[in-house]
Amino acid sequence: MTLPDYIKPDLDILFVGINPGTQSAKVGHHYAGHSNRFWKLLNEASFVPYPVTYHDDWRLPEWGLGLTNIVARTTSGSGDLKKGEYAEGRALFLEKVCRYRPRIIALLGVTLYPVMFPHHAYSESRQTRTSSRSRMGFIPELLEGAQVMVLPNPSGRNAHYSYHDMLQIFLELNRVRKEISARS
What we know:
Layout: E1 13-17, H1 22-27, H2 38-44, E2 65-69, H3 83-100, E3 104-108, H4 112-116, H5 129-134, E4 137-143, E5 146-151, H6 163-183
């Protein structure tokens, strides 16, 4: 099973995952794994007016937020994906960005940076924890005119980032979102 995209034109932020996990596919909602921290981070960083869960994923566009994945195929982990799936997913994703024109693209996982920017030397080598951390936050490159921020993958399997560190990055993303909205 694949999960639907929740996108509409001119979103403030389009959150981009790698691919759906098995629990998300089973229940039909994004980031539904019991240890996934996405919804808790979204709530604590005040992206939404009241607490929401994965059952509310379809409502995010109401608040200027969207959800999609680079690869639609469900797996138990991103390690099960093939390089060609990433390349195909990137092409489809760029079409979505051109069509819907989000202001900010939030890549949920440092592994998405080399997928989106394969021409960078950074993409050529396997990343260490230190270099991955240096790629967190806003990056100077744009994708089809949208600012890009790299966030830690909120999966419970991601032991490289504490909840506190993740929350600080989500708070920064929401701060910039509010600045951009105030200028619009």
